[in-house]
Each structure stands twice: as C-alpha cells, then as structure tokens.
Specification:
With 484 residues, the protein is an alpha/beta fold. It has three domains: 2-154, 3-Layer(aba) Sandwich (Rossmann fold), CATH 3.40.50; 169-404, tm_1862 like domain (pyruvate-formate lyase- activating enzyme, Alpha-Beta Horseshoe), CATH 3.80.30; 412-481, OB fold (Dihydrolipoamide Acetyltransferase, E2P) (Beta Barrel). It is built from 15 helices and 18 strands. The chain has helices spanning 2-9, 14-27, 41-56, 80-97, 115-124, 140-149, 194-198, 206-218, 246-254, 274-282, 299-305, 311-324, 343-356, 383-406, 450-453; strands at 32-37, 60-61, 70-75, 104-109, 130-131, 176-180, 182-183, 202-203, 223-227, 261-265, 289-291, 329-336, 360-365, 412-420, 428-431, 437-441, 464-472, 477-481. Strands 2-1-3-4-5 form a five-stranded parallel β-sheet, sandwiched between helices. Strands 14-15-16-18-17 form a five-stranded mixed beta barrel. It has a three-stranded parallel β-sheet with strand order 6-9-10, with helices on both faces. Helix 5 (115-124) links the parallel strand 4 and strand 5 (130-131). Helix 9 (246-254) packs parallel to helix 10 and helix 10 packs parallel to helix 12 (311-324). The protein is globular and about 65 Å long. The model has no long low-confidence stretch (mean pLDDT 93). The structure holds S-adenosyl-L-homocysteine (SAH), iron/sulfur cluster and FE3-S4 cluster. Iron/sulfur cluster (SF4) binds next to helix 7.
Length: 484
C-alpha cells in the first residue's frame, strides 16, 4: 500500500517514475541513494532533507558510492582543501558512473552556487546528471527528472526557495536533531565565501521551528542543535515581532516537553547580547558551552576581516559569559595567515588564547576564496612563516585543551550516548553537556565489565549515562559508566 503511494507521489516526474520501476523490475529491489556530505552542519541538515525527499518516493539508503544507484555529493567551499577533496571524489566516481541515465549522479551544496565550479563540471565531468544550489534542494525531484532527460549536465537558475518548509526529513541520529533556524549570512567577513553561496539572512518563522522541535521531541530525540551561520542574529529580519530574538527563541525551545539539551551554533560575538548571556546563564537545558569564533586577536586584523568587534570586546563578552554561567566551556575558530598578518598581530592572537584558555579550537590556515575582498590582498610568498605560526598555535591550543580535560579526571558527568565507538566495538561514545567527547566502558546488567569480555557492547544511542572520568586526552575523555 505504502509503495503504491510512493509511486503516485512520483506522477509529476514520469521519467524518474519509469527509472525507479525499471530498476525494481530488473533487480527485484528498490533503488538506493547515497549522499556524501562535506562542510558544516547546515550542509548535513540539507542532506537530511534530501534523504527524506528520496526515501519518500521509494529510495532506500545506501552506504557508499558503489551501493548508490543515485549519488549526491553535497559540497563545501569554505576552504580550498574542501573543494579539492570534492573534485578528487568526483574523479573517482567516474570509473563506475556508466552511461548517463544509468546511475543518477547529482552535485549540490555551496560550490554549486559558484559559476566557476559549475562550469568545470559541465566541461570536464559530463557523466554528472544535474547540479543543485543550496536554495534549490526542495526541487530535488524536479532536478533529477530534468537530469535524466537532458543529454548534458542539467542546471537551472530557477526553482529556488527562501526556506525549506514542510519537507520530509530523514534524521541520521537518534540522539540529536539538527534544526536550521535561519539561512544565509549578512556579515561579509572579508575572507568568507558563505554570504555568496548561501545568500542573505532569512530567519525561519518561530511557529515552524517550534513545531518541528515538538515533533522530534515527541519522537524521543533528546538533544536539539539550533543551526545558523550566526544564530545570534535570528529574528533581526522580522518586521513586526521585535521581541522575538534568539534569547526569546531559546527560552521557548526550553519549554518544549521532551527537549533535554539545547545546543546552538554559530554565535557571532558582535550579536551576543546581554539578554542572551542572561538566558544562557539561567536555563539549565541550554548547554554550558558556547562556540564563539575569535578568528584573530589583533584589532588591526579583526578590522580588515570586517568582524565588527575588538579584542577588548571579545574578552569582555567571555568574562560576562563566565560570570553568568560558571564552568561554561568556550570553543572557537582561529584563522592564521590572514593577508597582512604580521608577527605582532599573531602574538596578539596568542595573547588572547592565553588569557581565555579555550576549551577547544578549530584552527585554519587562511585560504583565499575568489570573489571575496581578502583574496585580492593575498600574498602567497610567506607560506613557511604561516605554517610555523599555525603549528605554534595548534601546539598551544592542544596544551590548553588537554589541561581543560584533565580538570575533569575523577569527576562524574552525564553523557548523552552517541553509540558504539568507531574505533573500539567494546566501548561507547558520547558527549557531556558542555560538548566534550567521552569514550567510556559500559557495565552490563549484572555489573560485570563488558570490556573484559571483548564482545560488542549494546548500542545505547540516545540514552543519558552517568560516567566517571578516569583519564584525559587532548580531544577526548576516558571513563567508566557509574553503577548505582
Ligand atoms: N558562520 C560561522 C562559520 C563560518 S565557516 C562563523 O561565522 O563563525 C567556519 C570557519 O571557517 C570560520 O569561523 C573561519 O574560522 C573559517 N573560515 C572561513 N573562511 C575561511 C577562509 N577563507 N580561510 C580559512 N578559514 C576560513
Ligand atoms: Fe562567514 Fe563571517 Fe558569515 Fe561566519 S559570519 S558565515 S565567517 S561571513
Ligand atoms: Fe561550507 Fe557552505 Fe557550510 S561553504 S562551511 S557548506 S555554509
């Protein structure tokens, strides 16, 4: 019965419908899709929507390029290495792509919002069926249909939507729901490609957000991750409802029954208001963690980056946050080698790192992005100096991260289980409320240590488990489940 419904939903796409029926007739099974996602969690959220759309018309999930009868690559443009890796993958798919219309192959994501990458695919990777920008994902079935009909790579400027509402979503995790609360970015940091690939800031309507969260909470997903390039700016584009800002939204989400933990990213320092700090300080369900990209500790570089805050303002925000929520963990992003960064600028970054002692940090070497202002100031001559600075910074941060983790040895923490560890089937992995990764030994019902028996543990994804921390590493903690 359900299969019939799926086929009926395909009536608007007769060529795709035929393709699916033929596949079924030939192989006796439904076709599989495989989506490979590069980049940030916004891309992951988009992939979950596209997976939902495909499952809704009868595709089953596959787990590799080889098993995908339909392959989608969701691309990222934030740095050159993400783009290079994508083209590497596309090159390797070529060998088994087959005739056009055999396997269906599509490319989506941020790279597809740029002419230069679309042109390259149209010229050199002609086995690709269709291209899709991030604002076109709700038209996925239409694009597949066109891709099957067209002899060359199909792309259209049209079929865009500001929001992706009322679409099926195939959530990849049972413990965490990704909820986009806004799309796009208005900030134009001078190094960043995102405003050009994702367009202007658009806040989703609060009713749509709340409804979606009520559904996932009712489904038993305990953790909510609110997503946006700058979540602190949520609601700023509403004309009428000025009191509806991000602090307000957080407090509304916290009221929803079944929501146990609320995470959010990313916070831009310039929009982190006192009201938001107070909210983070007063609502227990909100994670005691803020990801607050610093980018640089030099005022001269921050101005050239168009970040719109100074090092002094950043330090002040962090101390306010720590006062409001003692023990709050703070993570950050830092770019090394921004055009014109000199030694004193770099030392200013080190100085802020020493003053704040971040719990963790993502560190990046500046990567010029065509079309952004900073790319025109780029001087590739001093690569060795930049590499040296990068290594210095990573070493310092690793010391800080290890130190912060070591403070937890002997403490009890509540871990939301994310499943069996990817490196050891006898242990479980999960995260603390302040977003630290914990690998821990579970105990079975009668209290014996599963670890000593060397058998796979039960997957307890989505369960809150009390764990005693026994050791600390730079990027994770080790522990044992506490038996009461
Ligand atoms: N909207 C978020 C995340 C943007 S991308 C924010 O504003 O923080 C994630 C991180 O990638 C950025 O914080 C920045 O540190 C890094 N990044 C962005 N563009 C970059 C570039 N051209 N070169 C190197 N790192 C970059
Ligand atoms: Fe890029 Fe800046 Fe927007 Fe973040 S805030 S997405 S770094 S332009
Ligand atoms: Fe990459 Fe686009 Fe996200 S450039 S970081 S996938 S917004």
């Amino acid at each position: 019965m359900r299969e019939t419904n799926k086929i009926t939903a395909l009536d608007a796409y007769p060529v795709l419908k035929d393709w699916i029926c033929q596949h079924h007739a030939l192989n006796g099974v439904q076709p599989k899709y495989y989506i490979r996602t590069f980049g940030c969690q916004q891309n992951e959220a988009d992939s979950e929507i596209m997976a939902g759309i495909l499952e809704d018309v009868g595709f089953l999930p596959g787990d590799s390029y080889e098993t995908g009868d339909l392959i989608l690559i969701n691309t990222c443009s934030v740095r050159a290495n993400a783009e290079d890796r994508f083209f590497g993958h596309l090159g390797s798919i070529k060998q088994f792509a087959g005739e056009k219309g055999g396997r269906i192959i599509g490319v989506c994501g941020c790279m597809m919002a740029q002419d230069i990458h679309r042109n390259r695919i149209e010229q050199s990777f002609r086995f690709v069926d269709f291209l899709l920008r991030p604002d076109q994902i709700s038209s996925l079935l239409f694009m597949i249909e066109k891709g099957l009909i067209h002899k060359s790579v199909y792309y259209t400027e049209g079929h865009t939507s500001k929001f992706h509402e009322n679409l099926p979503i195939s959530r990849q995790r049972r413990y965490r729901a990704l909820i986009s609360i806004m799309y796009g970015c208005n900030n134009y940091c001078s190094y960043c490609i995102v405003p050009y690939t994702r367009g202007r800031e658009r806040s989703r309507h609060p009713n749509d957000i709340i409804q979606e969260i009520m559904h996932v909470a009712a489904d038993g997903i305990p953790e909510i991750l609110l997503l946006g390039q700058n979540v602190n700016a949520w609601g700023k584009d509403f004309k009428d409802h000025k009191q509806q800002n991000f602090a307000w939204l957080l407090s509304k989400v916290a009221e929803i029954e079944g929501v146990c933990r609320i995470r959010f990213m990313t916070s831009h320092p310039k929009d982190l208001s006192d009201q938001l700090i107070e909210t983070i300080g007063s609502i227990e369900k909100i994670e005691p963690h803020v990801h607050l990209p610093l980018q640089s500790g030099s005022n001269r570089i921050l101005a050239r980056m168009n970040r719109q805050y100074s090092r002094e303002q950043y330090l002040e925000i962090v101390s306010k946050l720590r006062r409001a929520r003692p023990g709050l963990s703070i993570s950050t992003d830092i770019i090394v080698g921004f055009p014109g960064e000199n030694l004193p600028d770099f030392m200013d970054t080190i100085d802020v790192m020493d003053k704040i002692r971040f719990d963790s940090a993502f560190t990046f070497i500046y990567s010029p992005r065509i079309g952004t202002p900073a790319a025109e100031w780029y001087n590739p001559l001093n690569r060795d100096i930049i590499q040296e600075r990068f290594e210095h910074l990573v070493k310092l941060q690793n010391e800080h991260s290890l130190n912060a983790n070591q403070k937890l040895i002997g403490h009890s923490v509540e871990v939301l289980c994310e499943g069996i560890s990817s490196v050891d089937i006898t242990i479980l992995s999960g995260r603390t409320a302040d977003n630290r990764l914990v690998n821990f030994i579970p105990r079975n019902m009668n209290g014996t240590n599963v670890f000593s028996k060397q058998i796979p543990v039960d997957d307890r994804e989505g369960e809150f488990i009390p764990v005693r921390i026994t050791d600390a590493k730079t990027f994770s903690l080790l522990g044992e489940e506490i038996c009461h």
